[in-house]
């Protein structure tokens, strides 16, 4: 189903002085999604403290409800999941969420009855076939178009035998996570072997393994590209959702660009998200990242250098890093991110087009961007219905007057309050 909300043009605010702010940002999309799925197949109720309420996670909750799980989201700070017998007929609208499209099919296979899947037009273009083929090889009955993408119908029998499966997950780490998350409920668990070019977004697969273990699953990930999940009942539990590190990226970028300081409140001492990677990247660009009792702080030092880095592990950070690159004092090479051509939009093509239109020199290769900064001018920054393109446009707008996003409403995918939070940070009001 297409997005219901109207497109909202937005003038990106320009920072008149260094941005000094303390921000409270929404919970991690990735942790919220996993906590919902694991809670749905646990024994007994679970709670999610400080979950992300946004389009992607509402879609996940809606899909689970359709299959018979009770998900109460009335309290913003505490969602309650009560597992029920998974059953069809049910329909899962995945919206634009890769997580919903790839985490829910194996859950639907565990349901008794037919579960249909569809989403926004753009999600039909995103890679799904390796997961469909993997589930088929495990005996699940699935109808899709010849492309192996949405719309899809899964005829669940109430159980999945499980066992060994080979998958090429080079297009998206979510293809692996989607098999692992449901596997404790497969009769024989699962042994997943990846065969193909490297799996991107390794920290997200580690998060899957970590959260499965926290819920009581036996998981062996000691061999590269091989994951073993033992069958067994998961226990309901309380999940505490961390603030979203990728969602925090544009806010941290504001500190670097303006020579200011931005502190993200509520950051935990030990995190399931790739904060060390973030520290190394921002450090190379001239920033300073510190973890204190009040949270995670990024300080701009007044210089902004270009970045030459392999971002395959943190591909979703590319749009904001590209925006920083266009404003830096030296060229950037953002490498290893061919897979983000299959994100909400072809992000390499979209970034090239938009930053070039503003005056930067950007060259695209199949899996990288080469950005040579030049003086930028204002203009319309197209967002392609992609929240992270909107973040990139907002970041450029801090330094370049007259940037207008053609649509800021797409940020509702992961942060419905983005425009207000952003303006409050920039203006201090
Ligand atoms: O598992 C997850 O929660 C995610 C994995 C990554 O997907 P890809 O591996 O497709 O990049 C990431 O980009 C996405 O935003 C969230
Ligand atoms: C790639 C992303 O999302 P999805 O979960 O839809 O894959 C993203 O949020 O950058």
TrEMBL record:
Domain of life, per lineage: Bacteria
Quaternary structure and partners: Monomer.
Keyword Transferase attached: yes
All copies of domain Enolpyruvate transferase, residue ranges: 15-419
Catalytic reaction list: 3-phosphoshikimate + phosphoenolpyruvate = 5-O-(1-carboxyvinyl)-3-phosphoshikimate + phosphate
Intracellular or extracellular location(s): Cytoplasm
Active-site residue numbers: 316
Residues that coordinate or bind phosphoenolpyruvate: 29, 98, 126, 174, 347, 388, 413
Protein name: 3-phosphoshikimate 1-carboxyvinyltransferase
Binding site for 3-phosphoshikimate: 29-30, 34, 172-174, 201, 316, 343
Known function: Catalyzes the transfer of the enolpyruvyl moiety of phosphoenolpyruvate (PEP) to the 5-hydroxyl of shikimate-3-phosphate (S3P) to produce enolpyruvyl shikimate-3-phosphate and inorganic phosphate.
Keywords: Amino-acid biosynthesis, Aromatic amino acid biosynthesis, Cytoplasm, Transferase
Pathway(s): Metabolic intermediate biosynthesis; chorismate biosynthesis; chorismate from D-erythrose 4-phosphate and phosphoenolpyruvate: step 6/7
Pfam families associated with the record: EPSP_synthase (PF00275)
Keyword match Transferase: yes
Enzyme Commission number(s) of this protein: 2.5.1.19
Family: Belongs to the EPSP synthase family.
């Amino acid at each position: 189903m297409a997005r219901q909300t109207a497109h909202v043009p937005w003038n990106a605010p320009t920072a008149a002085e260094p941005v000094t702010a303390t921000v409270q940002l929404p919970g991690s999309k990735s942790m919220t999604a996993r906590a919902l799925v694991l809670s749905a197949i646990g024994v007994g109720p679970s709670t999610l403290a400080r979950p992300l309420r946004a389009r992607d996670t509402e879609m996940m909750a809606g899909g689970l409800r359709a299959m018979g799980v009770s998900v109460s989201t009335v309290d913003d700070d505490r969602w309650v999941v009560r597992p029920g017998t998974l059953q069809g007929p049910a329909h899962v609208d995945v919206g634009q969420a890769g997580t919903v499209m790839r985490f829910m099919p194996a859950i639907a296979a565990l349901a008794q009855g037919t579960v249909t899947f569809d989403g926004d037009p753009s999600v039909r273009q995103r890679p799904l076939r390796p997961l469909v083929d993997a589930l088929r090889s495990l005996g699940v009955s699935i109808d899709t178009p010849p492309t192996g993408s949405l719309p899809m119908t899964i005829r669940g029998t109430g159980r999945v035998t499980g066992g060994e499966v080979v998958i090429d997950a080079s297009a998206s780490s979510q293809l692996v996570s989607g098999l692992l998350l449901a596997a404790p409920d497969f009769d024989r668990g699962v042994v997943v072997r990846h065969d193909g070019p490297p799996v991107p977004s390794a920290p997200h697969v580690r998060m899957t393994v970590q959260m499965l273990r926290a819920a009581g699953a036996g998981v062996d990930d000691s061999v590269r590209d091989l994951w073993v999940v033992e069958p067994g009942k998961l226990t309901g539990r309380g999940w505490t959702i961390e603030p979203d590190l990728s969602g925090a990226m544009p806010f941290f970028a504001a500190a670097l660009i303006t020579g200011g300081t931005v502190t993200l409140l509520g950051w935990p001492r030990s995190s399931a998200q790739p904060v060390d990677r973030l520290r190394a990247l921002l450090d190379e660009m001239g920033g300073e990242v510190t973890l204190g009792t009040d949270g995670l702080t990024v300080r701009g030092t007044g210089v902004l250098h270009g970045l030459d880095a392999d971002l395959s592990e943190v591909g979703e950070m590319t749009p904001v890093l590209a925006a920083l690159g266009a404003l830096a004092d030296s060229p950037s090479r953002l490498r290893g991110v061919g897979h983000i051509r299959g994100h909400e939009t072809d992000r390499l093509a979209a970034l090239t087009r938009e930053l070039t239109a503003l005056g930067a020199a950007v060259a695209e290769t199949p899996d990288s961007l080469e950005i040579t900064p030049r003086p930028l001018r204002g203009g319309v920054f197209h967002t392609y219905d992609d929240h992270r393109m909107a973040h990139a446009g907002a970041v450029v707008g801090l330094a370049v007057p007259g940037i207008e996003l053609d649509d800021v409403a797409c940020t509702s995918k992961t942060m419905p309050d983005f425009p207000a939070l952003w303006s409050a940070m920039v203006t201090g009001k």
